[in-house]
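Re-run requested by the PI after the first attempt was lost when the workstation crashed. Everything re-entered from the original request form. Ligand of interest: zinc ion.
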Amino acid sequence: MGSKVKRKRWSENFSEWYNELIETAGIQDKRYPVKGMNIWLPYGLKIMRNVEKLIHAEMRGTGHEEVLFPALIPETEFQKEAEHIAGFEGEVYWVTHAGHDPLEVRLILRPTSETAMYSMFSLWIRSHADLPFKIYQIVNTYRYETKHTRPLIRVREISRFFEAHTAHDSYEDAERQIKEDLEIFDRLTRLLALPYIVSKRPEWDKFPGAYYSLGAEVMMPDGRTLQIGTMHNYRQNFARAYNIQYETEEGEHEYAHQTTFGMSERLLAALIGVHGDDRGLVLPPTVAPIQVVVVPIPKKDVEGDVSVYSREIAEELMNIGVRVHVDERDIRPGRKYYDWEMKGVPLRIEVGPREVEGRKAVLARRDTLEKRTVERSDLVKEVRETLDKIHENLHRRAKEFLEGHIKRVDTIEDARRVFRDRRGIVEIPWCGEESCGLEMEEALDAKMLGTPYPEENSMITDKKCPICGREAKFIARFARTY
Ligand code: P5A
Ligand code: ZN
């Protein structure tokens, strides 16, 4: 094993660890000759597909219908909502020619699909009986990102862009939808063992065209936050621009209220970052392509067929729906352990002649690296329980990490100190004025994530805004972000 390269450490140099692991674990190849557009490798795609399955199940369960819109949008459609254009025009890719001919109406590659969908909404939505209207798609979208690109985190082709779009007959019903989105998001992230916080974005950082925006963040190991989900209430902004009207029961015409909910392959980036360690990936069993790997350890001249015994174990596990693989490659066991640990397989079963003879098996957990010998007769039960324990443990330790990195302070000096030693999220009293918020961003070299959501969690009394000295109305969160 002389060729073993020294690995980058998760805890010390996260950014390098991440870039290296994306390739060595077979997630993506980023050598494609268009910057910010990467190739999904088989193993990475399998994990992402498992995440998508969970999303589809949630959307089905909440009455959303799946659709697929074209990737090209006419310039004329794109230009209907003023704030939306202002927010996106610097980020869109243009299609100006077809063959040798310049196009009469130029096209954009969708950066998100509001402007593709909403003129169709105006054709489809006629009466109050058509509402609420709830659709979603998972497609590739294109954004000419100017900040530093990073695989899965900031890409120019977002290849697994999830977007739910809804229309409602009142503001209240749109608010109910945002609540449902938060519940969907909560169940999904529980299945991914990803603890998160939700903030209401400040006015200057809303989604272009939104009345308000919510963002959900996880904490990466270097103390920077990653936004993995957003929910937006558009009120009637887009409905006015795209003429989405419905007839009320009284026969009057009203503009629809709309919301959206978005996520992407950043969910996979979060899984990799939040759960990983110095040995590589650690995948929650819910999305691991292989949940259990069985490694037979044959010994020369020793009785007992480890291979047959291993296959029997695998078959029994397969029969109860466990994704299991037997690694029968002709290489040393240590090499196999190394590979599967790097790929984040939650549980390894080791089988040597001693286990065969004693009707036992060794279980090695990926999350804690603990090993334990169990009876062959208890194996199925033990595997099931251990997979559940692994999931719980991943969630618990990530939650401790997140909560341990949120610090409430009263002054800019204390906030600076937090960013200096530990990084993470700082909560500071804020008067609510944009100028003070921007000044704090500047002073802390951090971004305002917004105010804690639901809103009752952001209210405070008896505190002063550290910039202007006036009465603080909110708690504002700041972090260094991805
Ligand atoms: C919501 C869906 C929207 O686009 N329109 C429809 C709304 N919101 S958003 O915040 O701009 O994006 C939604 C989510 O997409 C992810 N994301 C990205 N992922 C990878 N690379 C990028 N360049 C990128 N940009 C956005 C984020 O998870 C975001 O929350
Ligand atoms: Zn102030």
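Saved to the shared folder this time. The CA atoms of residues 49 and 155 lie 18 Å apart.
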